[in-house]
Structure formats: C-alpha cells, structure tokens
Amino acid sequence: MNNLSFRPKLYLAAPLFNEAEKESNRNIRDSLIDCCDVFLPQEDGLLLDELVSLGTPLKVAEKSIYEADISAMKNADILLAVLDGACIDDGVAFELGYAKAINKVCLGFQTDVRRQAPTGNNPMIECSCEEIFSDLGSLKKWLQQKYNKLS
Questions:
Q1: For 36-73, how does the pLDDT look when each residue is reduced to its tens digit (9 = 90+)?
Q2: Residue 74 and residue 120: Cα distance in Å, rounded?
Q3: Of 45, 49, 62, 110, which has the fewest Cβ atoms less than 10 A away?
Q4: Do 40 and 60 form a contact (C-beta atoms < 8 A)?
C-alpha cells in the first residue's frame, strides 16, 4: 500500500452529540483531508435528530443510520476511533469492534489523559488499535508514511 497514487478512505468514529464534539471532529477531518478521504458521519452520514424531525419513525431512522454507517465502514480502508473521555463512547466502541472484525486498519486518537482502567485503556480497545496517537501531527505523519509518502 505504499503506492504514491493510493489515497486511503478513512472513517472517523467519534462522539457527535454536542457542538464541542462536532467541532473537534471537523478539526480532525480538516487536518487529515490532504492525505485521505475522510468520512465524517455528522456531515457525510445521517443524524438521528434530523431524520426524526423530518417525520421519520424512530426505529426506521435508527436502522437507516446503522446501515449507512456500516456501509461507510465497509468502504473505508482505515477507521480512526476518537478515544477521548473517561470512557469510550459506546457508538465508537461498536464501530471500532466492527471495523476490526472486518479487517480494517484501526487507529486510535486520544488526547484525554483519563482512562477507564487504572492500567490504561480497556485491553479490548487498546489491542484493537494498530496505533494510538495523542496528537494530529503524529497521526498525519504516520498516514503519509504508510499510504502516500507525502512527507
């Protein structure tokens, strides 16, 4: 995969339930967009509150979101899981596990010093990630070296 013309598709798995989370997700996307195609569910996928406000029944809206995100993960080369918080977001945990199960490259991004276990991340999260980065510069450098040799 060190082909100069290969542009990986990255699925950004992150909480998106308040403006601060959404802004952080946009910043991550904007930092990586020159080395990968980034699927950002809050903008490229479906949102529950929007579907329901348009009159979509809740169960139909939930199923639509699930299917759209599963499709996006299947089409991705990489899943980047935002691991910030005292406990990983439950949707992010599912996305990470699903991507790992279908043999995607799984990476973590964690700037928060809090960890659920006294020894660090839960081993199921830690071992699902090929690498866990604490800053965007390191993450971007890794992606460039592995995929498109732009550095």
A1: 999 999 999 999 999 999 999 999 999 999 999 999 99
A2: 29
A3: 49
A4: no
Q: What tokens does 17 get?
A: 């339930």
- Helix (H) or strand (E) holding 9, with range, is strand 9-13
The residue among 89, 76, 2, 92 whose CA lies nearest residue 36 is 76
Q: How far is CA 26 from CA 34, 38, 85, in A?
A: 14, 10, 18
Tally DSSP H helices, then E strands, for the chain: 7, 5
Helix (H) or strand (E) segment spanning residue 57 = none
* H or E stretch at 143: helix 136-143
What are phi and psi for residue 80, nearest 5 degrees?
-105, 115
Q: Is the model's pTM score more than 0.85? A: yes
Rg, the chain, Cα only: 15
Supply the pLDDT for residue 4. 53
CA distance 43 to 15: 13
